[in-house]
Write a structure and sequence with these properties.
By secondary structure, this protein is mainly alpha-helical. It folds into 2 domains: about 35-90; about 100-195, Serine Threonine Protein Phosphatase 5, Tetratricopeptide repeat (Alpha Horseshoe), CATH 1.25.40. The protein is built from 11 helices and 2 strands; from the N terminus they run H-E-E-H-H-H-H-H-H-H-H-H-H. The chain has helices at about 1-10, 40-55, 60-70, 75-90, 100-115, 115-130, 135-150, 150-165, 165-175, 185-190, 195; strands spanning about 15, 20-25. Strands 1-2 form a two-stranded antiparallel ribbon.
């Protein structure tokens, strides 16, 4: 009976060629994506490479490497990799559909709070195109620009925010997100015009 199964299996693993001789047929191949790091060094290397991709916003590639790093022997690296893979998944979810200036503004402020200054800037610039006379959008864009290091742009948008709503001057004096502009003569003159007059 075992011989019968063997010959049956042999028939399944070979197919006839045009000349009539049998050509072996390969079985299923293991998936390449299931390759795991074998040791702690490979696991750590995968995690470090994933972190670089994560910071470069290559989230899909980073997620794949984080998942590889979860399978290694180092438990603390595996746990951190699992957390980062979950963060990648969250960020890769479909972006919200934004239509109004307020929706772009609210999303931009959320990105400021997440310290994504470039993303915040893009959404706030779109909000400003939709509602160019909105002081709160100019103010938020100034904050995003300050966080991104664009001091001239931040200063110009803060100037416009104060022109539209003078109370923004008082708010800006106490805003920790504008600390990068503190001590800049033009920005100080904008926030403290009374010092210039004396």
């Amino acid at each position: 009976m075992a011989e019968k199964k063997k010959s049956s299996a042999a028939r399944k693993s070979a197919r006839p060629s045009a000349s009539g001789s049998a050509i072996p047929v390969e079985g299923p191949r293991p998936a390449a994506a299931t390759v795991q790091p074998v040791n702690g060094t490979g696991q750590l290397a995968a995690f470090e490479a994933a972190i670089k991709l994560f910071h470069a916003r290559s989230l899909r590639e980073a997620r794949d490497l984080f998942l590889r790093a979860t399978e290694g022997p180092e438990r603390d690296v595996a746990q951190r990799a699992q957390l980062h893979a979950a963060m990648c998944d969250q960020r890769l979810e479909a972006a919200p559909v934004l239509r109004t200036a307020d929706e772009y503004y609210n999303y931009g402020v959320a990105l400021i709070n997440a310290r994504d200054a470039s993303g915040a800037r893009q959404h706030l610039e779109t909000a400003l195109r939709l509602a160019p006379g909105s002081d709160h959008i100019h103010y938020a864009l100034a904050v995003a620009q300050a966080l991104a290091g664009d001091l001239a742009g931040a200063q110009e948008n803060m100037r416009r925010a104060i022109e539209l709503e003078p109370r923004n001057r008082i708010i800006a004096r106490h805003d920790a997100d504008l600390a990068a502009l503190a001590g800049q003569p033009a920005f100080d003159a904008l926030l403290y015009p009374e010092k210039k007059a004396s």
